[in-house]
Design a protein that fits this description.
two-stranded antiparallel ribbon, alpha+beta
Length: about 220
């Protein structure tokens, strides 16, 4: 049962799907559905562990309950926007959008769809522990966030993305092939070299928020 013991992606499976990436082709839908079921099982497993962590925090005496800050470094693609499985060298919505949970005494319970940056996590932790935020840190604490901040910025190597509700703006400084020394980057760059954010120094994507994995790309001067 995947819900109890999801099997990892085997190396031969990675090579199999890499073949589709190189051909800019879609794998059979039933195979993608299988991968998504396994991924969902992993998410459920993490959710259960988070529940145990929350129960531990709730069991602590008043005044000693710890603050919890949980997030992820990236999402995963399953060929939704681009012929790609995973997350390497990609700047699509499936990769950039990650969960963020802050749970601490005195912080009101609410769910927010506002744009934030992972760079705001460190200032938030300092804020929660009563430590003065270091001058020059990127991004304000989430506890003192301005309501006017309605964008998020993400980076991958020399590629950057600024996101608002309906627009993604990408800009990049191309890396000469002779300077690419990271084997993982060298493995993935050929499969994304014709991605809009790799075709020009700047690229603009507009999309319907109800279907963010299907952007309309435009050239941007």
């Amino acid at each position: 049962d995947y819900l109890e013991s999801p099997p990892p992606l085997k190396s031969e499976e990675s090579d199999y799907f890499l073949g589709f990436e190189r051909q800019r082709a879609m794998p059979p839908m039933e195979q993608l559905a299988e991968l998504k079921r396994r991924y969902a099982a992993e998410v459920l497993g993490v959710d259960r562990l988070i529940g145990r962590l929350v129960d531990f925090a709730d069991a602590a005496p008043d005044g000693e309950r710890p603050a919890l800050v949980l997030t992820a470094d990236h999402g995963e693609e399953f060929f939704e926007t681009w012929p790609k499985l995973g997350h390497g060298a990609s700047m699509t919505e499936a990769v950039l959008r990650v969960p963020l949970l802050v749970r601490a005494p005195g912080v009101p319970h609410r769910v927010s769809d506002e744009f934030v940056n992972a760079m705001q996590v460190a200032p938030t932790i300092l804020d929660l522990t009563g430590v003065q935020v270091i001058e020059g840190m990127d991004g304000p604490s989430l506890l003192h966030r301005s309501s006017g901040e309605d964008f998020a910025v993400s980076f991958y190597g020399t590629i950057a993305s600024l996101r608002t509700e309906r627009i993604r703006f990408y800009w990049t400084v191309p890396i000469p092939r002779e300077l690419v020394i990271d084997s993982d980057t060298e493995r993935y760059l050929p499969h994304l070299e014709d991605a809009p954010w790799s075709q020009a120094p700047m690229a603009l994507a507009r999309f319907d928020p109800s279907d963010p994995n299907r952007p309309v790309w435009e050239d941007s001067e």
